[in-house]
Specification:
By secondary structure, this protein is α/β, with parallel strands linked by helices. It folds into two domains: about 1-110 and about 250-315, 3-Layer(bba) Sandwich (FAD/NAD(P)-binding domain), CATH 3.50.50; about 115-250, FAD/NAD(P)-binding domain (3-Layer(bba) Sandwich). The chain has helices at about 10-20, 25-30, 50-55, 65-70, 120-125, 130-140, 160-175, 195-210, 255, 295-315, 360-375, and strands at about 1-5, 35-40, 40-45, 65, 75-80, 80-85, 90-95, 100, 105, 110, 145-150, 180-185, 215, 220-225, 230, 235-240, 240-245, 250, 280-285, 330-335, 340-345. The strands form seven sheets. The chain has a five-stranded parallel sheet, covered by helices on one side. A four-stranded parallel sheet has the order 13-12-11-17, with helices on one face. Strand 6 and strand 7 form a beta hairpin.
């Protein structure tokens, strides 16, 4: 069986390594073949960009060579896909090569689209790429006080990021002696401060305790950079001295260009993880349209489920899944610079965040270091 994985992020990497270990004998005998196509020879630990933006890490700590993260036996090529020929079980890449497959897994991720809101890209700071995170870090270092607005577009990668950056900025400014010179204000598109109800119920009192103000039902319409005003579709205006934005995200452009899904999200069966209408094409991570958090742990748990199912197909000729994805997600939530909590949930059970602790913060800090073992599928 020829297994082709498109994308070298967390989901694609964990899946490839999971399959390589499960199918080690089949790879040696030639019964199975695993190929990964990626747009980069580097692997970025994306959650670390949040820490880069506040000066708590450096860019080099966030990267590893992708080939070095993969198990022996996995064929790896830096050759991004440009055309999906699903009816022919083929993809065509930037180099002009055509790769055939028996089983295809699409794990191409997502991208922020700040440019879709007038004035947002030019007047706000972001932390979803190395370049924007470094720019935000320099802007924060220069900032001497005023109103800092954290505004949120949907959908976006990492569901807890808006809360995390808000709490972390509170402690960051306090640590710099600017606590009494900075007013933090948070906006969110629906009628609470987070999409997950129990997370919102936990976060809102925390905001109140720390003096962080908020406005809900605030969907970003435009940014007036000259007047430093953020406007919403609902008609309200919020002045700012510094604007931090979690912009809306879309799937990658190649997905849109190939017509595989609206806004780059591929219609995906939420338990079997196959692309709707296709029995040999699977989708994991941010690329799916499954109504669940676009988080690293989502991709991780999806990859483990799919690894077990594809291995069963190869070893036993199974044509039905031996395991279903239950919607499991586990998200750490930084509640400042030295406290954290977490949210664990699935399709059936909502999250129930506990009071933040220092121990949980250090647990997350440890995971940031252990991520590379996780990408190898060892955790």
């Amino acid at each position: 069986m020829k297994i082709l994985i498109i994308g070298g992020g967390m989901g694609g990497t964990i899946l490839a390594n999971n399959l390589a270990r499960r199918l080690s004998a089949e790879l040696r005998s030639g019964k199975a073949r695993i190929t990964m196509l990626s747009a980069s020879d580097k692997h970025l630990y994306q959650p670390g960009l949040l820490y880069l933006a506040i000066g708590r890490t450096t860019p080099d700590a966030l990267y590893r060579d992708q080939a070095g993260l993969l198990e022996p036996g996995i064929e790896f090529h830096v050759d991004p896909v440009e055309e999906f020929k699903l009816d022919n079980n083929q993809v065509k890449t930037k180099s002009g090569k055509t790769y055939g497959y028996d089983t295809l897994v699409i794990a191409t991720g997502s991208r922020m689209v700040a440019e879709e809101v007038k004035g947002l890209a030019e007047n706000a700071e972001f932390f979803y790429t190395e370049e924007t995170a470094l720019k935000m870090m320099r802007r924060l270092q220069e900032f001497k006080g005023g109103k800092v607005v954290v505004t949120v577009g949907v959908p976006h990668k990492c569901p807890m990021a808006p809360l995390e950056i808000t709490f972390m900025l509170h402690d960051y400014f306090k640590e710099r002696g600017l606590g009494d010179k900075v007013q933090l204000h948070y906006t969110y598109p629906i009628n609470r401060v987070h999409s997950l109800e129990n997370v919102a119920k936990w976060a809102a009192p925390e905001f109140g305790r720390l003096g962080i103000t908020s406005e809900t039902f605030f969907n970003i319409k435009e940014v007036d950079g000259e007047k430093r005003i953020l406007r919403s579709e609902e008609g309200s205006e919020v002045p700012f001295d510094l604007l931090i934005a979690i912009p809306a995200h879309r799937g990658m452009e190649v997905i849109e260009k190939n017509g595989l899904g609206q806004n780059g999200w591929i219609p995906t069966n939420k338990t079997k993880l196959n692309m709707e209408g296709r029995t040999n094409v699977y989708v994991i991570g941010d690329t799916t349209n499954i109504p669940i958090s676009k988080a690293g742990s989502t991709a991780h748990f999806e990859a483990e489920t799919l690894g077990e199912n594809i291995a069963a197909m190869v070893k036993m000729g199974m044509d039905t899944p031996v395991r279903e994805y239950d919607g499991k997600v586990f998200c750490f939530i930084e509640a400042g610079l030295d406290r954290a909590t977490y949210a664990m949930f699935n399709y059936q059970n909502p999250p129930d965040p506990k009071a933040p602790t220092r121990a949980m913060h250090w647990f997350k800090a440890a995971y940031n270091k252990l991520y590379w073992a996780s990408a190898r599928g060892l955790l």
